[in-house]
Write a structure and sequence with these properties.
heterodimer; A: about 260 residues; mainly alpha; MetI-like fold; about 80% helix; elongated; B: about 260 residues; 10 helices
């Protein structure tokens, strides 16, 4: 949790030990070779797939769909969330519909999307947008509603226009909530892209992994999983980096509040 | 924190609810009209009246309840297993720095794996059976439960721990009587976060590899072009998600009566 700590020797050695045990067990029991290919073989498969470029192609497709879906949904959900958070009437109008749609597991939309949009990129991007909209929307609404009314009143007293109040008071004050929503949305978007690729698709990492499983190339399957995990990790890191850049001003505030 | 109940606010809430329901009904009426008048392709988007009618028929015939029962058995098995393994692990990792560091890297390596990607692995090991879904749900519910438990245990007030020591409580008793109750809210947060994940993953795993369950039911209806049946299955899933959430709220209120006013904060 806390950064700036000494290197975790213990953790890395237990991880290495696990991999070594895996390697050893895999070599000792050839019967299990299909399920548990030795780590070295998975790495070799990963190297081969990287060299041949197949996995990068699939990864690129997945990343493109993810980026399109996530960015679209972020833009849509933050805008809508700020509007619904600010205009109570609008929120009252839509609240019931939102509450009824939200609990439905978002992947259930995939069959409808296939029906309406076929099995192309459009379908995959649409379901990604649909699923990741909810956490961002709900958090944005919440964030805007929790803005201290005193802040807004103060802004009005100082003669700020509505637009200025939105830009300079509401958005910064609500941003911690919006960022939380965006972070949850990120992992959901990745889940939806890979799922949609598994259910309907002929490209992308989700398809690649399931396809390799069906072809019984388990080393390739694991290699694909490593790539997806790396992708997920990298996206998360990137998000945290951008967040700490954008939210730098907040650190001072928290310290002041708790001091 | 503002008190949750005051009458004026309740009145406003009721009014708002009424408005929201009215708007929803209007949307449904518009949809019905558009489908009946063939403004939209009723083969792909059938009128809601047809969907609701079919939904009630499928519920009455027992078809939908049976599929939901199948899915819920798998979902709860994976969920409870994850809770049984990762709450204790989280307590240990929260209490001991060494245990935390021992597992930290492994957890950080596994956590960024998007859960659906585990499905092929589970298929390889377990085939199409229940175990496959249970494992996938177990894996994906693990992280929120584990991380929230660790956080909760670490956040326990030092005064409580020192008091327990002063009263000469044994280590085991301290864990049971002081630490667990103190971090119960956080543990429940982890369980709440994993609840929708559980539902999503049971649906996905049934879509990718299964011959029954509500997720299979919905996708199969689409593939056979039984469109109204597909929408009826989605309606069932929405109701299921809502019900699970309400049940969890109830559980939380039973377990944490002292937290009643602080929910959702």
């Amino acid at each position: 949790m806390k950064r700036s700590q000494p290197f975790n020797w213990l953790g890395w050695s237990s991880f290495a030990l696990l991999l070594a045990a895996w390697e050893l067990i895999a070599w000792e029991t050839p019967k299990l070779l299909l399920y548990f290919p030795p780590v070295s073989r998975i790495l070799a498969a990963l190297g081969d797939a990287l060299a041949a470029g197949t996995i990068l192609q699939h990864g690129w497709v997945t990343l493109g769909r993810f980026a399109a879906g996530y960015l679209l949904s972020a833009g849509l959900a933050v805008t809508l969330g700020v509007l619904l958070g600010y205009f109570r009437y609008l929120h009252g109008l839509l609240a019931t519909s939102i509450e009824l749609l939200r609990p439905m597991p978002s992947v259930a939309i995939i069959p409808v999307a296939i029906l309406l949009l076929g099995i192309g990129d459009g379908m995959i991007i649409s379901v990604t947008v649909y699923a990741s909209v909810w956490p961002i929307l709900i958090n944005s609404i919440d964030g805007v509603r929790r803005v201290d009314p005193t802040l807004i009143d103060t802004g009005r007293t100082f003669g700020l226009s509505s637009w200025q109040i939105l830009r300079q008071i509401i958005l910064p004050a609500a941003s911690p909530y919006i960022v939380t929503g965006l972070r949850i949305g990120l992992s959901i978007a990745l889940i939806l892209v890979t799922t949609a690729e598994m259910i309907a698709g002929s490209k992308g990492l989700g398809f690649f992994i399931l396809d390799e499983e069906r072809a019984m190339n388990s080393a390739n399957m694991y290699a694909g999983i490593v790539v997806v995990a790396l992708l997920g990790y990298a996206l998360n890191r990137l998000f945290l980096l951008l967040e700490s850049r954008a939210m730098k001003w907040r650190h001072g505030m928290i310290v002041r509040q708790t001091a | 924190m503002a008190p949750r109940h005051d009458c004026a606010a309740d009145g406003v809430m009721a009014l708002r609810k009424f408005k929201g329901v009215g708007f929803l009904l209007m949307l449904l009426a518009l949809w019905e009209l558009a489908a009946q008048a063939e403004w939209i392709n009723a083969l792909i988007v059938p009128p809601p009246s047809k969907i609701f009618k079919l939904f009630f028929e499928l519920v009455a015939s027992g078809q939908i309840p049976m599929q939901i029962l199948v899915s819920m058995k798998r979902a709860l098995a994976g969920y409870l297993l994850a809770a049984a393994v990762f709450i204790p692990l989280g307590v240990f990792m929260g209490l001991s720095r060494t245990i935390y560091r021992l597992f930290e890297v492994i957890v950080e390596m596994l956590r960024p794996v998007p859960p659906p990607v585990v499905i092929p692995v589970a298929l390889l090991f377990f085939g199409l059976g229940d175990e496959m879904k249970i494992f996938v749900i177990f894996f994906s519910c693990a992280w929120p439960i584990l991380l929230n438990t660790i956080d909760g245990v670490r956040g326990v007030d030092w005064v409580l721990l020192n008091t327990a020591r002063t009263f000469g409580l044994s280590r085991a008793k301290t864990v049971w009587q002081v630490i667990l109750p103190a971090c119960l809210p956080q543990i429940l947060t982890g369980l709440r976060v994993s609840l929708p994940i559980m539902l999503i993953l049971v649906v996905i795993s049934e879509m990718v590899g299964s011959t029954d369950g509500i997720g299979y039911f919905v996708l199969d209806s689409q593939r056979r072009f039984r469109v109204a049946q597909m929408y009826a299955g989605m309606l069932a899933l929405a109701i299921l998600g809502y019900t699970l959430n309400q049940l969890f709220n109830l559980l939380q209120r039973l377990l944490l009566p002292w937290q009643r006013g602080r929910q959702l904060e």
